[in-house]
Amino acid sequence: MSAHDLDARLTAWMAAAAEAEHPPAGVLGDVFDVTRRSPQPRGPWVRPAARTADLWRARGRAGTPLRLLAVAALAVTVAGGALLAGGFPWQPPVDGYIAIEQGEGYPDRRIVLIDEHGITRQFTPPGVADTCPAFSPDGSQIAFLEVRGESAWGWDMELMVAPVDNPAARRAVAPGQVMHQAELEWSPDGRWLMAYPTMFDARGEPIRSERRLFASDGSGSRALPAPLASGSRNPVWSPDGRWISFINPDGLWVTQPDGTGMRRLAAVEGRFRSHDLSWSPDSSRIAFVTNPPDRGVVAFEDGRTDVFVIGVDGTGLRNLTNTANESEYRPAWSPDGTRIAIWAANPGIVDVETGVRSVIPNGEDIAAFAWSSDGDRLAVVRDSPGRTVEILPIETGGPPRVVGRDAAASFCRMLEWQTQQ
Amino acid sequence: MTRDLVLQAQRGDHDAFERLASAVLGRLYGTASLILRDPDAARDAVQETLIKAWRGLPTLREPDAFEGWVYRILVRSCRSAIRTRRRLAVEVRQLDIDIARPSDEGTVDDRDQMERAFRRLTPEQRTVLVLHHHLGLPLAESADLLGIPTGTMKSRVSRATAALRAALEADARAAAVPMEKTA
Q1: Are B43 and A24 inside 8 Å of each other by CB?
Q2: Which chain B residues are within 8 Å of A1, Cβ to Cβ?
Q3: Which backbone phi and psi does A32 adopt, to 5 degrees?
Q4: Segment holding A358, helix H or strand E
């Protein structure tokens, strides 16, 4: 039996088997007895301290507070780091670090920094789990989520910031607030971080989540206008800091952070993923992904999404890829604004003005990419055995250079390249 | 319609929630049964899921994503049930008596064969196959749900599929063994 036949047979059997199972009588009655007596939790923003303390207990290490392990690990790292890493502060490489995640699952997830020579530095100390690294616009700091534990609702994380050259000096930006697993977005001036906190009631039950801005120095937070705060996806700050673009169910929107000037730029259809918006470096245009209306509303896996470009004033809408049989997504504008890297079955780089597309040779297994700050190279992660991190010299040509391995897939950006000023 | 019900339920409307729960009950129970292969455990997982869904509804950011969201809670509940059973060491190994017994007619019904093979998989293997083949979640989304890298999810699907294939082949071989050799 071929693999395809087995898959088809299994899928058909599962559908039939699931349909044949009938829930026993009284299932819902028991549930409604509980829910009728149990109003939905409503309450304050911050998780009660006792609940947070519970989360510090590492799974499978009952009775050992993870915080103590973390503090001990940080001390060891600080002491040992001088030997291992040539002393603190680290000297970031001239071309900047590439940040990736490694580790099987969240309890063991860590952030690793790699330079172009393949020298690796452990950003996350032993005994701690981190995810979703995001370099600050000036490249001096990394915001990330420290994984505190798993609850019935998902993974509980805390928003942290640490200097790139001294990761042991990590600090909580919003102590006690539990964050959703979501990409972190710095404001271009580095003062704010957009994150997704969850609100809990007094009993520790989550009540809702709303995106907010947190001062990166930990001095406070502020609300974002609806629907940017909730119900929208993929908020991305324009490089000039004036606008935040986001995807709403009915289209591509922009707003100023205080809600001023909110407007829909384009109707969009189909499904979207993270990473699917990218601003031009001069903040004049946005690249986004949608299904051309004449191809119907379908999942992007069906080969019908294209990358579009539109001006921030709503003019100049243009289908940049216009392929009927291939899906393109995750546009990433080059630092000089002339090209857009796109993810597809055959990833490539599209010249923004001419639309000419260059396919990356042997790029079929590329899972993520990031531009170097000079726009000459692309760092990529390959979704193949070894999950290598490679530098592609797209301007000068030449073979890819493997600089790292074992890059973990992440809900957030799989790799980040440090901006150099 | 569903969106309206979700929005009402998010505001604490019990009737709206009960209509939502009734609408998804069958599919939730079917999915839990696939993963757990135990009616009582499936019932418990579904009940736990619906109660968590009620309490967690205000945290649901996209009303249109209700069904996917509630499936995520269900899979977590199933995984929790699997862990609990393992911790309490009361998980009963399935004795695959049927596998060594030729059918009365000398032929094996295709569906029963798949049922037996699927039952021989570990709960983790069943979970990844249900996420991938039954719920149709993309690999990255399934990996996110289980807290593992996409590559690991891909290899787990591959290993689970290989285990299923091996179980099917073992079933076919056993069907050819005379009864006295297995007694």
Answers
A1: yes
A2: 165, 168
A3: -70, -30
A4: strand A357-359
Is B118 in contact with B150 (CB distance < 8 Å)? no
Is B162 in CB contact (< 8 Å) with chain A? no
Q: Do B27 and A18 touch (CB under 8 A)?
A: yes
Give ∠ CA A113-A272-A364 in degrees, rounded to 5. Answer: 55
Q: What is the DSSP string of A151-194?
A: ETTEEEEEEEEEETT-GGG-EESSTT-EE-S---EE-TTSSEEE
- A122's enclosing H/E stretch is strand A120-122
Strands (E), chain B: none
Q: What angle do CA B151, A406, A328 make, to 5 degrees?
A: 55
User: Distance (Å, rounded) from C-alpha A328 to C-alpha A288?
Assistant: 10
**Pairwise CB contact (< 8 Å): B111 & A35:** no
Which pLDDT score is estimated for A39?
Answer: 67
What is the distance in angstroms between the Cα of B146 and the nearest Cα belonging to chain A? Answer: 8
- Looking from the CA of B162 toward its CB, the CA atoms found within 13 Å total 6
Cβ-Cβ pairs closer than 8 A, A with B, add up to: 156
Which residues 377-406 of chain A have a CB within 8 Å of chain B?
383, 387
For the ranges A15-19, A61-65, A367-371, B159-163, the lowest mean pLDDT is seen at A61-65
Complex ipTM more than 0.85, yes or no: no
Q: What is the DSSP string of A209-266?
A: E--EEEETTSS-EEE--TTTTTT-EEEEE-TTSS-EEEEETTEEEEE-TTSTT-EEEE
Distance from CA of B182 to the nearest CA of A (A): 27
Q: What pTM was computed for the model?
A: 0.60
Order of strands, edge to edge, in the sheet holding A251-255? A233-237, A244-248, A251-255, A263-266
Average pLDDT by consecutive 10-residue portion of chain B (183 residues)?
A: 84 88 91 88 88 82 83 85 54 30 41 83 88 84 78 87 88 60 36
Query: In B, which residues are within 8 Å of A6 by CB distance?
Result: 161, 164-165, 168
Q: How far is A18 from chain B (nearest CA, A)?
A: 4
Using an 8 Å Cβ cutoff, are B132 and B31 in contact? no
Residue B142, φ and ψ in degrees, nearest 5: -65, -40
Q: What is the pLDDT of residues A156-178, one digit of tens each?
A: 899 999 999 899 999 999 998 88
Q: For A65, which DSSP code?
A: B
CB contact under 8 A, B149 and A104: yes
